[in-house]
Amino acid sequence: MLITKLTYQCCATFPPDERFGLTSQMRRAAVSIPSNIAEGAGRGSAKDFSQFLSIATGSAYELETQFLLAAEFGYLDENRLQAAVSELVELQKMLYGFQKSLQPEN
User: Fold this and answer.
1) 106 pLDDT band (50/70/90 cuts)?
2) Spans of all domains in the chain
């Protein structure tokens, strides 16, 4: 949920004309991450949970790309970009590890 909060804080500084563009896309991707983790946790099986973690991971990569775009457009300074990307990379690693831990051993 930290990355969602960070995303909302960053998007609040974007130009108003981005409200229905990049801001909307970034907020949706950011909210998707904890939402899919929560939904997966509420499912009855490790297989279902793993699938929702996969969706959350995809959203994390999507959000990383959108942060890079926001920086390219001049909406974020280097410090905010690096903070966001650092958090996202750590989250991606955690999601991957968690997903692997749910897979059955062969």
Assistant:
1) low
2) 1-8+17-102
Q: In angstroms, rounded to a whole number, what is the distance separating the alpha carbons of residues 9 and 102?
A: 33
| Contacts by residues 94-102 (CB-CB < 8 Å, ≥ 24 positions apart) | 95/37, 95/53, 95/56, 95/57, 95/60, 96/57, 98/53, 99/50, 99/53, 99/54, 99/57, 102/46, 102/47, 102/49, 102/50, 102/53
CATH of domain 1-8+17-102: 1.20.1440.60
- For the stretch 30-73, pLDDT in tens is 999 999 999 999 998 999 999 999 999 999 999 999 999 999 99
